[in-house]
Amino acid sequence: MSSKINATLRYTSLRASIFLACLLVALLLGHFGVIPVVGDLGVIILFALAMVASSAISYVVLSKQRDEMSAQIAARVEARKARAAVRDSAEDEADDAARAAARQAQAG
User: Fold this and answer.
1) How far apart are CA 19 and CA 58, in angstroms?
2) How many angstroms from the chain centroid is the CA of residue 77?
3) Contact, 56 vs 62, CB < 8 A?
4) Integer CA distances (angstroms), 78 to 4, 24, 45, 83, in order
5) Whether the Cβ atoms of residue 66 and residue 5 lie closer than 8 Å to each other
6) Which of 56, 62, 70, 91 is most buried, taking the most CB atoms under 10 A from its CB?
7) 32 three-state secondary structure
8) Are 84 and 29 within 8 A, CB to CB?
9) Residue 108: per-residue pLDDT
10) What's residue 65's pLDDT?
């Protein structure tokens, strides 16, 4: 179970780190006038630029971590489905037994 948390935590922290690095670069470019920044809208545009750049970088650089995380999530979902199937079949057997007992009580 801890490996599931670690893969998700690792991917998320790497993704956040890439975003912060892109934001730092965008803010530096805005500070030095490479990217024109006018008021609050300019800062919002820098944030949007950092989000777009970081998502593109993350898509390429973090593919291995994303695959590990998605495989672990898929395994967890399959395990839940299996447990639900076992639980449902146990409920069905108990329900069938109760109905059979009720029919037997009515007949006898």
Assistant:
1) 9
2) 12
3) no
4) 14, 40, 42, 9
5) no
6) 62
7) coil
8) no
9) 65
10) 92
- Amino acid (1-letter code) at residue 90: A
| DSSP conformational letter for 38 | -
Residues in Cβ contact with 49 at an 8 Å cutoff, skipping those fewer than 6 apart: 22, 26, 35
The pLDDT tens digits of the residues spanning 47-83 come to: 999 999 999 999 999 999 999 999 988 988 999 998 9
Q: What is the pLDDT of residue 2?
A: 54
Instruction: Give the CA distances from residue 62 to residues 13, 14, 45, 68, in Å, rounded to whole numbers and listed in that order.
Output: 11, 8, 25, 10
CA distance 32 to 41: 17
Per the structure block, which two tokens stand in for 41? 């809208």
- Residue 67: both structure tokens together: 């695959």
Alpha helices by DSSP H, the chain = 2-31, 39-61, 63-107
